[in-house]
Amino acid sequence: MQGGNITDILPLNQILCGDNIELIQQLPNRSVQLVITSPPYFQQRDYGGGMGNEVRLEEYLENLLSLFRECVRVVTGDGSLVFNLGDKYEDSSLLLVPYRFAIGATETGLVKLVNDITWVKKNPTPRQFRRRLVSSTEPFFHFVKTADYFYNPDAFMVDKTPPKKLQSQGRNVGQKYFKLIDQSDLSADEKHNARVALEKAIQEVRRGEIAGLRMKIRGIHAEAFGGQDGGRKIQVEKNGFTLIRLRGNKLKRDVLEHSVESIKGIKHPAIYPVKIVEEFLHLLTRPGDVVLDPFIGSGSTAVACKQFGRYYIGYDINPDYCEYAQNRVEMIANENTSSLFGDS
Ligand SMILES: C[S@@+](CC[C@H](N)C(=O)[O-])C[C@H]1O[C@@H](n2cnc3c(N)ncnc32)[C@H](O)[C@@H]1O
Known about the structure:
Elements: E1 14-17, H1 20-23, E2 32-37, H2 57-74, E3 75-84, E4 89-90, E5 93-94, H3 97-107, E6 112-121, E7 137-144, H4 175-183, H5 188-206, E8 212-217, H6 230-239, E9 241-246, E10 255-258, H7 274-284, E11 290-293, H8 300-307, E12 311-316, H9 319-340
Parallel strand pairs: 1-12, 2-3, 2-11, 6-10, 11-12
Antiparallel strand pairs: 3-7, 4-5, 6-7, 8-9
Bound molecules: S-adenosylmethionine (SAM).
S-adenosylmethionine is lined by residues 19-20, 38, 40, 47, 50-52, 268, 270-272, 295, 297-298, 300, 315-318, 321.
């Protein structure tokens, strides 16, 4: 585009009713930062047309992958695609639909699969099977186009509860390592450096700058370093010790625990949690970015975007769901405006 901004020609903050494979053709290449979506599961529900009701699994996967290719086309170079799929039993055996899709997606050669994030449903449908357990997880696959994808893990799953009283602020913090340094066969210089480094980290803990510390000393602690921790192994070999500062942040794990939502007045049978979309918005987009959901359903993606200052574009083939989604987003917008103006 010359002189103009690409977002000027996008249907921002709109829910368009129609077949996503046709609607997406109207989007320019590399025009959205994130595609996040939950396609209809294979032969699970009839949404009144569209995908999911194919007779053969192969046909379903082909249709989904055709749409996936288009999604890849419209995502920016530093953008991401997040697809959530559910599985299905046939003849008492799981079909592994989500994983077949993920393999097909990576085999397009257009994307890399960064994570298979497991949604743990806190409130699965209460059913008792005699010969199997209740399925209570679903994957969210995170794909990217390049290694330069935008990523903000500091904003992901931020623990809003106040930190526990730090174990570390006690008087004994780190003291055991002094003894271990004395007992070790490090050289006098190495012992001196280890004590200085340890004392410095202890002071950081006492000032509340870090949550705690761990020390690994050559000949005392087992070498358990590999992969990205290889640098620590080198430190232990070279300096005789390594000091790990615990920042107190929650580990950013590939697990999201949330209840399945049902929303009063919205008769959509397969709503995914706004909270999950929210976490992906924090992780993979900046405020003002454009997010596409080609299977918008009840509008969960649009609601999260509205709440966190991202633009959304949503498609759904079922006019009733388009209307539900539109109403739901408008309700959120009105709530936000009322609270801005101090209404209750
Ligand atoms: C699993 S639901 C999405 C639910 C959504 N994530 C939510 O939280 O409400 C899948 C949606 O895809 C829609 N759909 C199916 N085939 C479609 C197609 N070809 N184009 C657009 N929408 C389609 C269905 O009507 C259904 O609402």
